[in-house]
Structure prediction request, 1100 residues.
Amino acid sequence: MVAKGVLGAPISDNMTAEDIALNMKEISVAEFFEKNRHLLGYENSSKAMLTIVKEGVDNSLDACEEAGVLPELKVTVKQLGIDRFRIIMEDNGPGVIESKMALAFGKMLFGSKFHRLKQSRGKQGLGIRGAILYAQLTTGKPAKIRTSTGDSKIHDFEMLIDTVRNEPKMTLHTVAPNKERWHGVVIELEIEGVYVERAQSVPEYLKRTAIANPYAHIIFNGPNGVQKFERTTSTLPKQPKEIKPHPYGIELGILIRMIATTRSQNIRSFLMGEFSRVGGSSADQILALAKLESGRKPATIANDEAERLHKSMQMVKLIAPPTDCISPMTEALIENGLKKELEADYYVAITRPPSVYRGNPFQVEVGLAYGGKLNPNAGAELYRFANKVPLLYHQSSCAITKAVEEVDWKRYGLGQPSGSMPVGPLVVLIHFASVWVPFTSEGKEAIAAYPEIIKDIKLGIQDAGRKLAGFVRSQRKSREGRMRRQLFERYIPVVAESLEKLTGKDHSAIEVKLDVMSKSGKVIIEEPAADVSAGQAKTAEPAEDEGGDE
Amino acid sequence: MVAKGVLGAPISDNMTAEDIALNMKEISVAEFFEKNRHLLGYENSSKAMLTIVKEGVDNSLDACEEAGVLPELKVTVKQLGIDRFRIIMEDNGPGVIESKMALAFGKMLFGSKFHRLKQSRGKQGLGIRGAILYAQLTTGKPAKIRTSTGDSKIHDFEMLIDTVRNEPKMTLHTVAPNKERWHGVVIELEIEGVYVERAQSVPEYLKRTAIANPYAHIIFNGPNGVQKFERTTSTLPKQPKEIKPHPYGIELGILIRMIATTRSQNIRSFLMGEFSRVGGSSADQILALAKLESGRKPATIANDEAERLHKSMQMVKLIAPPTDCISPMTEALIENGLKKELEADYYVAITRPPSVYRGNPFQVEVGLAYGGKLNPNAGAELYRFANKVPLLYHQSSCAITKAVEEVDWKRYGLGQPSGSMPVGPLVVLIHFASVWVPFTSEGKEAIAAYPEIIKDIKLGIQDAGRKLAGFVRSQRKSREGRMRRQLFERYIPVVAESLEKLTGKDHSAIEVKLDVMSKSGKVIIEEPAADVSAGQAKTAEPAEDEGGDE
Prediction:
């Protein structure tokens, strides 16, 4: 027997198993996040403001797209005191029906998007509740919400979250007639915050959101005036479709649960009905390998049989999961977005073919903007997106950053301190789209470093990088050509005088002609370019878009 | 009215608010972490094994300390197949009573430590359930648990977690007589994993746990043999006490909830009874500032009055919160721990006075080990601890790392590439102890970068660094002295010959004497040391522990 310890503290401090049990109780998920609010992105006042706007805008865009409505969003940030703000977020989405109004905003881990395999911005049923919780924590004020589904009523209500029970507490509810059949949601929150306009800020977030969602019209009414992000296309993207899980990505524990709860009559129809890419012959192959009869009722499958089934599912050759569950930005829209927001010389965009990690389909897109007014002497700027949502925090711990740093940018004509971001007048845009983005925290700020993900991002960058390299080379060539031309022009008087002596023509006329030739680009001077002569100038082809030498 | 969008997808894909509402449902917290298991530290198979052992060991140490029992822990890792392991974790703690057995292991967000302000390793009621969930996900096998509180019964049971309902599902329960009055918990899990012995490994975790908890006896029975971590003290640390929240750290939303649920008769007794460091006169000052009568019933306090109260609470001068809620490692035990595990030349440990962030008391400790067999050409090794738990992952995003890198180590005689870890034969141990450690994720691997925390860690390092600097200087001096002595010895024959000419004594006898003097350290040669002479040698003091010059 081990003796009771010799304690510094009095013996009465010691607890028995009964004492400990007496203190055990359930922790509501709302209490959990109230105490751990940094997990949701609320670790400081300026980040809190950005997180709130992000959660609101994400929800609005998801809802509009699901309903097939072109998004019209308005975000208002009004300063009420030194660190006191009112934030109003308004959309024209489908709204929320009366019976779910309170829950949709006031209960954490409640929502429509968690259980399905389909790309969306929100997933976990936490986001907007976190925003409401933060408001009530810092100012004690309820959220004010207005919504209508476009029927005859507009609902206005105020609510708090009862964190101990993780339940909404509606403190006011009025109904008004809806003559104009308005539909959408307006959320108003009063918070303690700090407003900034630097990199990790609300306006920067909205700017990048506009790049990734060019079919959205967003108005930002901030403390320093109104900013509008016009839509550049009126076509909503093709809606992603919900898919079933793929056998390669399913975990044994999940398979056992699916077997326990399926309504399928037999294990063969279970495989065919509840998984992607399992047809009759694949199902037969799997069952033969697992030594299970196809007529077995799922309820009779024991755990060791399920384990055999699971192994067999990984061994049979199956088509990759369908990818219409993913909605990429598309190459054209990425280029448009970059052109709209950045003054560069060269733009390129790549949409990779879809790929798979842990059974989850994903797709990577890369956009590069180079030259022009971008800063040539700084590290490249990185725009990270996950399911069309800009990621502004935790850059250093993101799989996207890792991938960008692992690429050898020197091949594409850029500087790069070892293992760092490339240096040059460059913006790198990476979009990661998936039915399930593996975020490193509930605040959804960085993507976990799965090797399959990093590899595919690097392939995308390399594709885009090779195209960029051609431009960087030609740009360097034209810069060098320009320098050589300038050198040539300095010698024009000397050359003209020599030619006067040779031809007897007036040197000033020759000078004018040589000058025009040089400036119009007709003089192509090859590499060594050491001795410049009229003979070389003669070999020059006339440029297609020349100004003419009248 | 905004038109329905021109869609690429067929119009029937569009969902109405009713459709969306139909899909809304509650997400159980167990489902949430099942899908987000990387948040709990299960993103890959080798980390998973470490996380499981960590959760088990943390719980065991907490339980033993609460019950005043000297911890006897045994961790067994047995390889069953290529990537299949059995992990058994055993303690001699107080055990779990029968009515709470299932919940204590099978319900997430359930526990005794979340709601109290007192230092402990576990807090959230997630850890060990995450381990059980991971086992059932990867192998489908239930957890096997044995426990007794030291009464007449030993319980053996097997259980799974019903993730959809976040409830335990006991699949077996047998009771045996407990003749020896054994008490404790044994948990056995079968998992998919990878066993490693490098840095981020189970043995490394246990080694560091032993450093921070020298009163624990830990046996590790691993795939490559048995390793024992003996205790170096049989005295349990003074038990931390539970404290009440301090007015400076309370958030408005929490204050409002406390007011709503208090049993205090009036607002004055509420302030005095439910907060630390609020006596009668502080309460009166606060209430006067807030313009609230001290006799007001808490239930009658409106939200704007609560807000005034909250502001006033921040303005009145109060003593810092009590710090007996914190259990530091102590300077002596840190030094012992470092000495036991590392062969260095110099050790120093500093326990800082307690400090406060967001109203939460915390205390920083720093230990340094320098020289000896530590690698002089690598970056210093960093041992991070939070509430005596070693942190092995996410080093780069931890407040501790940030603080270490921000210190100017060159002052203490060490190399340091700008903004990086110092370079030299150095181990830096940092312990952060608090009633609430602000971890950056549920996996509890890094501390959030609160400025107050970083500042205090830096102060601790500077304290320890100044002491280290003295040693580094004297070590350099003695190395330089040694080099000079070697130089001197090379000239002994020349000097001896000169002395022979001067004194007439035989030069070989003089040579022997000079050599003995030099080797015994009697010759202290001062800085310039250009011309070595017998006169200088004469001024040398006899060394205390000299070998004698027979």
